[in-house]
Amino acid sequence: MDHEKNEYSKGAVIISIVFSAIVMSYIVYVGITRRISLSGKVRYTIGHTIKLQLTMSGRDVKYTYMVKGIAYEAVATYAYDSQVPGGRYWVRFSEEHPEHSELYQNKPIPDYIVEAPPEGWKRMP
């Protein structure tokens, strides 16, 4: 009976290790893919902060931005002087994968800029 229980425990440990390895591999893959896409051709647009989210690692800010008529949502680490909700900040996004972006909370959009071109700007105006 102890032998059967021990075999069951070994199987559970192996399954847990394999599952954890798959999850970690996916997280690394997503991070690398995002970093590569943001190191290539990028453009800039206007991001709007929506809300703060509490996470295990602290606070994140959820934001939206538009590229060619498609709305995207993303999350960034919260900068403590950012306006949330309702802040307007520069977003850098990948031309090839517009779902990959970075929010520049230290660079608010000037009031005279009302909207972005559908494809964004090559450089921040």
Structure, described:
This protein is elongated. The relative contact order is 0.18. The chain is of the alpha+beta class. The mean pLDDT is about 85. Strands 3-2-1-4-5 form a five-stranded antiparallel beta sheet, with helices on one face. The protein has two domains: about 1-40; about 40-110, OB fold (Dihydrolipoamide Acetyltransferase, E2P) (Beta Barrel), CATH 2.40.50. The protein has one helix spanning about 1-40, and strands at about 40-55, 60-65, 70-75, 90-95, 100-110. It has one helix and five strands. The N and C termini lie far apart (about 75 Å). Strand 2 and strand 3 (about 70-75) form a beta hairpin.
Name its key features.
five-stranded antiparallel beta sheet, 1 helix, OB fold (Dihydrolipoamide Acetyltransferase, E2P), 38% strand
How many strands appear in the DSSP assignment? 5
Mean residue pLDDT: 87
Distance between the termini: 73 Å
Helix count, per DSSP? Answer: 1
Oligomer: single chain
List the helices and strands and how they pair.
Elements: H1 2-38, E1 42-55, E2 58-67, E3 70-77, E4 88-94, E5 101-108
Antiparallel strand pairs: 1-2, 1-4, 2-3, 4-5
Brief write-up:
Helices cover 30% and strands 38% of the residues.
